[in-house]
Specification:
It is a single chain. This protein is 24% helix and 20% strand. The protein is built from four helices and ten strands; from the N terminus they run βββαββββββαβαα. A six-stranded mixed beta sheet has the order 1-5-4-9-3-10. Strand 7 and strand 8 form a beta hairpin. The radius of gyration is 14 Å and the shape is globular. It starts with a strand and ends in a 7-residue tail after the last helix.
């Protein structure tokens, strides 16, 4: 797959990284421009591997092998600090709106690509709300988990 690269300075590098999770977020911002500025801000200290616009354009902000700062304090089963072994995907969305079809279609293509490339189990395709319950609510109630399950991309709701 090809992506438009818009780098963020907010990442860490470790020698070898084992990818086990894909974490889906919404930006919670009013505009895509605002979201990109925040994800590139050295002050905000947040980032993501991929950002998908409402029109379905996929931007890569951090290389897969680098650690993006998207999960924060997080846990799933026995794993903690999921930034270390996950890929973050941000969807441009304020949090209270429906996700455009093209955005979700391209998210599904990206998830399929990443699952195949890194052998990520569908049970490890999660939302931020799964790994930081009570602290985070994204990708939110509008997110089509059932569609992802029907496409065999996730089994989480």
């Amino acid at each position: 797959m090809k992506f438009i690269k818009i780098p963020s300075p907010n990442f860490d590098i470790i020698k070898k990284r084992s990818l086990k999770f894909i974490i889906i977020h919404y930006t919670g911002m009013t505009t895509q421009k605002e979201a990109i500025q925040r994800l590139q801000s050295k002050v905000a200290k947040v980032s993501t591997h991929y950002l998908i616009s409402k029109k379905g354009i996929i931007y890569q902000m951090i290389k897969d092998q680098h650690i993006a700062w998207h999960a924060g304090k997080s846990r799933w089963e026995s794993d903690k600090n999921l930034n270390l072994n996950s890929i973050g995907i941000e969807l441009v969305n304020k949090g209270d709106e429906e996700f455009p079809i093209l955005q979700i279609k391209n998210l599904c293509m990206l998830i399929k690509y990443l699952k195949n490339k890194y052998k990520i189990d569908k049970k490890h395709v999660l939302g931020h709300s799964h790994i930081a319950p009570g602290r985070k609510f994204d990708p939110g109630i509008q997110f089509p988990w059932k569609m992802l399950a029907n496409l065999d991309l996730s089994n989480n709701h």
